[in-house]
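QA checklist item 7 of 12: single-chain prediction sanity check.
[x] sequence parsed
[x] length recorded as 349
[x] structure emitted
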Amino acid sequence: MAFQQELISWYLVNKRNLPWRHTQDPYIIWLSEIILQQTRVEQGLPYFNRFLAAYPTVSDFAAATETQILKLWQGLGYYSRGRNMLFTARQIMDLYAGIFPVSYRELIKLKGVGEYTAAAISSFSSGESMAVLDGNVFRVLSRYFGISTPINSTLGKKQFSELAQSLIDKQDPALYNQAIMEFGALQCKPKSPNCEICPLMLSCYAKNNNLIPVLPVKLKTVKVKTRYINYFICENDNKVLVNKRISEDIWQHLYDFPNIETIAEAGVNNEVFLEKVKQNFGSAVVIRPLMQVKHLLTHQIIYVQFFGLDNYIINFNISAEANWVTWADLDQLPQPKILTKFINFYFNK
């Protein structure tokens, strides 16, 4: 038990004072866990505070509209998390009479709740002895025990899951889970961890075998995709034409401008591109370059161009999802971060 005791002793001295650590309310813990998926605590904390202030209970969350949730989520990325949360909140109202489940068995059935999240909520809210296994935990276990099996392989997931569960402190699983996650986040960091002050230094396999930069091992399987999106700004009487994204793609159910995606960078001198623009906005349309931006997502690099249009005609058969809104109304709609940057540029140029 020396490993667990060292982690808990370290945690009690070094833990951060985070609001979700002062409650056993499964709704609040769920809120924090989903927001912090793929998100640093420093970035996610303001969103957590805003969501909890706006929706203090799961019934409040369930009563919100998707537009309201996505607007509050704006800028956090991975918008499917927000949509899944709304589905889950309504699911809890329908299936559990508004009482948030606390057992792993019930939590794992909820949309957007995977094995890690179900283990975290169940252990933190009800003391269920379920080990968490996130990126921080993978790293601590891999380095300390010297496990080189790739963490994202089928064998690796099984091996680490069994090890993590065998280590869970039966007396206080919540405390142990918090401790090992915090240790990975603050002490056993991905790059340049300060091993000289680590309480596990003497018994750490990676430290004693110069494997800190090598472990954990992760298979590289995801290819980065490059995309080119061209947005068109159509204004009329202080209104602008916007488009609601309905396809199962990036920024689903967010609002942006009418656009054309091309296979390479396009411009006003590209005849093929201009022909596509004329098909959508009339043969007499005049196109004006406004702004170019490079936008990075986890697995995509998106080159975005914004164009102003004059003398255009809107073909609503082609642009079925397009609607006129005021600039003020657009500010109240959920939109990709890249649009917010453009709007700030557009009104301050």
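[x] summary fact logged: The mean pLDDT is 92.
[ ] second reviewer sign-off
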